[in-house]
Amino acid sequence: MIYHTLTLANVVFHGRTLQTLSILWLFETLQAYEETKDVMIEHKSAPLLYEMLRSFTVLAEELNLSRAVKRLGSTRQTVRRHIDTLEEFRGEPLFDLDDRRYILTEAGQRALDEADDIVARGQAWMKNQTARVNRLSHLSSRPPAGFFYQLQQQPLIRVFQDAPTLIRHAMAAWVASGGQIEHPDFQAVRPQVVVFRRFDSNWVCVEVGERSSYSTWFGWEWARSSIGLKSADLPGGRGFGRLLVEPFEEVDRTFGARLDHIVTELPRQPGQSPVPISYQRLLLGCRFPDESRGLVSVVVRTWNIEIEGVTQEEIQRMDADLRMDDNSSR
Fold first, then answer.
1. Which of 230, 201, 213 is nearest to 264 (CA)?
2. Which residues share a beta bridge with 138?
3. How many CA atoms within 13 Å lie on the side-chain side of 96?
4. What ranges make up the beta strands (E) of the chain?
5. N or C: where does the chain have the smaller number of CB atoms within 10 Å of the terminal CB?
6. How does pLDDT run across 206-263, given as a tens digit for each residue?
């Protein structure tokens, strides 16, 4: 490229060739430096990115370097270097230091949620527990690596094509109500849903419908006792932890809707062994009268499930009498 530029300058500018060449050479040299710098940063950070983000998220949780180092199995120098590198690349401080106590800056608080997501997804990806199928979320956990849990996000068009009647009715009520939980058009489905409310970074169960899948699976008394619990603390355990809450976060961000097919195992009473369950779940973003954020979960137990890598035999491990869809009497 420089050679052709020189030839053109000789022909056109004659006496000003050297000056023109110097300017062009300087411009291209600076451009090449910036490109090389970007590549150097990419190569320098890529192998360490996961470990740097782990250092950031653990230190953000502990806010104490000694405790963070112990949890990470690392050294003080390494953790400090990871934080310094992240701050250099991002061009903003993630922590302030006050008498040896770390405090998240505003920039650090903004960055933390996404960093947590990257770390959680990275851990699951390395265990082959997360993927994209047709560009939609797919989670898979099997013993001995974890408990049995299979999830496949579905296109929303399936709500209108082959979803159980309750899910179709809930979607229609949500549209008619404009997502307002107390709207008259939404009341017909309230006894069959579970309602969550956003408190800080957690989703807390605030209402359990008496005829919801939750109540008919766990029993009304146990279901009512779940009111006030965080979503991760409800019967069934934490599973993938953050990844299991990801669908809630997605719906909340978009004030939208999401349809998932899920096959897993859950106990029916405290202290009992988990038993197979297969269900479709519709999540709907909603608002309370005070405009605070909420989320409605509509679950229908069914054999009408499609998940990559899950056989029909695994889907039908759930007892036929437990189905709630249009092909059952429950």
1. 213
2. 131, 152
3. 7
4. 95-98, 101-104, 130-133, 136-141, 149-154, 194-199, 202-208, 257-266, 275-287, 293-301
5. N
6. 999 999 999 999 888 777 777 766 655 544 333 345 667 789 989 999 999 999 999 9
CA pair distance 85, 292, nearest whole angstrom: 38
How far, in Å, CA of 141 to CA of 123, rounded?
12
Under DSSP, is residue 218 helix (H, G, I), strand (E, B) or coil?
helix
CA distance 278 to 300: 9
Give the tens place of pLDDT for each residue, 114-145. Answer: 898 888 888 878 878 888 899 999 999 888 76
Cα Rg of the chain, angstroms: 27
Whole-structure pTM value: 0.75
Bridge partners (DSSP) listed for residue 139: 130, 151
The three-state secondary structure class of 21 is helix
Task: Walk me through the domains of the chain, giving residue ranges and CATH numbers.
Answer: 1-126 (1.10.10.10), 130-322 (3.30.450.20)
Strand partners, 213: none
